[in-house]
Amino acid sequence: MAFASWPGATLSPVQESAHWERRISWVVFGAITALAAITPLGQEATHPLILVLYRALLMTLIVAALWGATRSADGRRVCPYFLGAAGLLGALLALSVWLEPGSRFEGTYVFYKNALYGAAFLAVAAYSRRRTLQWKQALLIVGAAIGVVHLAAALIFARGSTPLFGPFTNPNYFAS
């Protein structure tokens, strides 16, 4: 058995495929986890560093998930009708922003942001079909743990009012 770290050693195509699968899996897992960790830090555009990090992670997630989804050995693909409908919807949304008279900065920014979210959602949906149940459970557990850490930090460091009962919440709706 040859190991890739030995000089002159090569990987078989099966070993190389599994090696790249693991790398892509870690990149996608890390990008999703990092996005979950930095999202509650405020609006994404509140600080330039957060904005750049957020956009870079989102683009990394899209590229890695699409790359992993297209390297599928089982040959399953995303339904072309679904992709066509998503593309048509995106085009109609873009037209609604760009054909409206007046200032387009806010509309273009919101469209760009939502288009990136949509692309990330489609890429991760296509990629995660081949992931194991353990991978999906680990992602869920890490996401829930990040949420608990953010909630605990908000409860500990709250000044004046607690985050669950502050002035920004609707007293008739607990989830606001």
Describe the structure.
The protein has 176 residues and is mainly alpha-helical. It is built from five helices and no strands. It has helices at 13-38, 48-70, 80-98, 105-128, 133-156. Helix 3 (80-98) runs antiparallel to helix 4. The protein is flat.
Q: How would you briefly describe this protein structure?
A:
This protein has 176 residues and is mainly α. It has helices at 13-38, 48-70, 80-98, 105-128, 133-156. The chain starts with 12 loop residues before the first helix and ends in a 20-residue tail after the last helix.
- Overall, the morphology is flat
Q: Low-confidence segments, ≥5 residues, pLDDT <50?
A: 1-6, 11-16
Mean pLDDT reading: 75
Order of helices and strands: HHHHH
Number of H- or I-type helical stretches: 5
Which helices and strands occur, and which strands form pairs?
Blueprint: H1 13-38, H2 48-70, H3 80-98, H4 105-128, H5 133-156
Helix pairs in contact: 1-2, 1-5, 2-4, 3-4
Name some characteristics of this structure.
single chain, mainly alpha, 5 helices, 66% helix, flat
